[in-house]
Amino acid sequence: MQFLLFVGANNTLAAEEVSVQIKKATQISPNVYRFEMDSVDEAKKIAEKLGSSIKLAVLLEGVSPDAKSVAKQIKAKNFSLSLLGMVKENTNKLHQEVKDNLERGRFIIPKDEFGVSPVITRKHKVDEFFLDAANNQVWQTVWAHNFMHWIKKDRHMPHVDPQAGMLPPKIARSMVNLVPLSPEGKLLIDPFCGSGRVLVEAAELGYQIGGTDIVANQAQDTLENLQSLNFSGQIEVLDATHLSDKFHNVDAIVTEPFLGKSKFRPDEIRYIVPGLEKLYLGCLKDWLNVLKPGGFIVMVFPWFNDGKKEYKTSEIIDGKLKLSYNPLKRGILYSRPDADVKREIVILQKQ
Prior knowledge:
Number of strands: 16
Structural class: alpha/beta
CATH class of the largest domain: Alpha Beta
Radius of gyration: 23 Å
CATH topology of the largest domain: Rossmann fold
Largest sheet: 8 strands, mixed
């Protein structure tokens, strides 16, 4: 069976996440991927797993993109039609033609080529279709992400501090999915766990989890956030450069480390960067004693620019650490809007 996966336009990790989790997916537009799976349930399972996924559509074999054929597929009271690859095409006439072939029905005009919002499809039980006239194909939405669950994790856990620069849940999920492992029976650690965003997503995927933070209150926040979702793990108050004091035989480390103070002047950057590089180097050296052979690290490295020079803290990998880690992927960029610091996500594998 063939499927279309629609991913969030704001998730810059989508392409990497899809390439790791759906090996043979092909990108057909900036936010749409095509792939094959044996069943709708199997495709839904992978869509549910991804942080970048917004909705999933299945190819309706033998259905052509004309009004009469599409009308026969509509079972719900509400329906919506979008034209694949045609961003500003007006679909009012097409919607009316389909409605004229129905005894009853109400159409909802999509706001763009990605169809109606998942909020609407879930609340109003909409039969949604994507028409591809060029290839004589019709696709029907079979899954949309559970926006309420993501909102709960973003805003309504016991400890949420928007000012702390926490990773959005969907970005945290995508980062965990950059680890090329099946989660069952695997141990994943976040040595800078903060309020536990990464660990919540890892636990939901089925990993065994553990975390550390040098600030006791942060470690407690992580523990309570996990407990609010009925998850548990080994959470320690510990310096990340001494992770080996508490953890061994770890399959993966996924983390956004301390990125430096939140407010700084451009002329301070050249003094900030060496301290961060020393911290990251100390961590990566210690983590060699933590990871299993072949274990993975997915880690954020900040980039700074003082107007004269760009400082990439990930360049520490190019020294002696190259003898210990194999860089699988570099240059995956994620930045919050108006951020002073760019975030580069790097995937490493212990040799």
